[in-house]
Amino acid sequence: xxxxxxxxxxxxxxxxxxxxxxxxxxxxxxxxxxFNFAIGQMMMFGAFFFWMSTDRFGLPIWVSLLLSLAGSVxxxxxxxxFTMRPLIGQPVLSSVLVTLAxxxxxxxxxxxxxxxxxxxxxxxxxxxxxxIGGVVFSHDLLWSFFLAMALFVLLYLFYQRTRMGLAMRATxxxxxxxxxxxxxxxxxxSLSWALCGLIAAVCGMLxxxxxxxxxxxxxxxxxxxxxxxxxxLDSIGGxxxxxxxxxxxxxxAGGLIAPWLMExxxxxxxxxxxxxxxxxxxxxxxxxxx
Amino acid sequence: MAVARxxxxxxxxxxxxxxxxxxxxxxxxxxxxxxxxFSLPLFLPGRWLNLLNLIGISLIAVHGLNILTGYCGQISxxxxxxMAVGAYTSGVLTAKLGFSFWAALPCAALSAxxxxxxxxxxxxxxxxxxxAMATLxxxxxxxxxxxxxxxxxxxxxxxxxxxxxxxxxxxxxxxxSMFGIIMPIAVLMTFFAKNLVRTGVGRAFIAIRDNDLxxxxxxxxxxxxxxxxxxxxxxxxxxxxxLWAHWMRAINPDHFTLMDSIWYVGMMIVGGxxxxxGAVFGVAFLRVLDELTKELVxxxxxxxxxxxxxxxxxxxxxxxxxxxxxxxxxxPRGLAHRWEVFKASYRLRPFxx
Lengths: 290, 353
Known about the structure:
The complex is a heterodimer.
Chain A: H1 2-32, H2 39-56, H3 61-84, H4 92-114, E1 130-132, E2 135-137, H5 139-161, H6 163-173, H7 175-180, H8 185-211, H9 217-231, H10 236-256, H11 261-276
Antiparallel strand pairs in A: 1-2
Chain B: H1 14-18, H2 24-43, H3 46-71, H4 79-95, H5 101-120, H6 129-147, H7 151-154, E1 160-161, E2 166-167, E3 170-171, H8 175-196, H9 200-210, H10 212-217, H11 222-248, E4 250-251, H12 258-271, H13 276-303, H14 308-330, H15 334-348
Antiparallel strand pairs in B: 1-4, 2-3
Helix pairs in contact in B: 3-8, 3-9, 3-11, 3-12, 3-13, 4-5, 4-6, 4-11, 5-11, 9-11, 12-13, 12-14, 13-14, 13-15
């Protein structure tokens, strides 16, 4: 029984990070209609920036944190400016395929700069593992869970309460109408990518604390795709529920049935969701008219 | 597509109208090209023959993908996984059950086709991007199944060794002899792909790609044809996988990753979606480019010795990613379109229009 509780706890904690990655994908999808396959690589870059400034340059944690966030935003803006903007007006599929090509490109750049090694981050999160009734919560997972939740709340407020958030929601609704109302759609696109870069950097650093900084970090991004589809591609709340569910189910299946199931449970969920409820739990159902 | 024909070239019968190879010059070029292709093993060194073999195998996989994505409009990110099904079917049949290569080849094609059909089922309800995600699921689930629950028969992550194909006593073990198996199959499957898209089935595919609602109104059984497209695509993947297995002679789930699937999609984009000739151009272009990158790395690592170890691992993906991004931005219709433009201007020479 305790084992089951432990799996549930781990699953929910890891699920928090998945949810955050999923949120990064949803943000871009909502305003631009592009599904960002390269978010795992963006996470990897954030983690590498952080490692560079703490380990190589020996800067304090909070400076490195800001540097990593800034670097990640710059990468995201470069992606937006040089690959996404020329494709405005083209079929959305082209942009999606570009993000697939970016997966290759960014991997190559990362190997070229940092090599194919695995680096370990210094201990930067304060605290020690907590045990509640026999269930152990490791402190890094707790940190990432609560940071993820805090970011979620912040972004939700940003979307609902600020003028910029309103403009982004309007752009998601219709590019043309938003433009007619005087919203600069290009700025919105850049802003969505910048936000995605921020989120990716945070996720990258949190995950790197557990997994070390290496190419493998980008593979975690793949776990977020099922989470996004589970909740619905255009739903912020859905990303949260989807991330938690995927984390929970993969830990339960991996722990109780067979370890190898952990890797593919998210995709089995994905297939089931696609067959049973393609628009996701909270997604907008599209009705096609001729 | 209506093609501007030079003055004096016109059809006198239906058979002429339907012919793929129309003029005497085309026949001469085709036959000369085939003779040249099949005489290559006589003088090319093994390394370049292996490259040609790889091109042949990738070509089959990309033709399948092109039928599904380029003609029927259903995106697949799981081509490598369907290749894995073909590779392991034929690998297990030949290595464990003693089948000959020639009997295993159709079995591999069929099993891959059936698995492809299963993962095509979500196309009943979803399309476009969502369907791509379903095939992405296939890309993760199939190799994991091969590596773990089926470990007893597939050897899991410890490679499965596949025997050499044989006819009687002749073993096909050298690159030259494998060329003799791979290239004829690749040529035949190219011909089949080219012909398929001109038939009623191919036209139904194109109708579904252009507008599935309109196609349904016209009486096209959309779901049936989508499944058929998945089946054909996976059969191609199965054949490619089977050839891959007997060419590499050892297969591992790691040979068939998401990255490989993206490679095939990239080849299709560079060549030009919805064009059989485009598939050939795309595969040849990217595979040769990859080989040239390797040459460049050899040369560069002599200069930057300290950096040498990662140069190959870094430069390959960078070049590949960049080429695809540039093609999507600057020539989304691919090399095939450039070829059409060239042909049109050649026909009309010396006039500009």
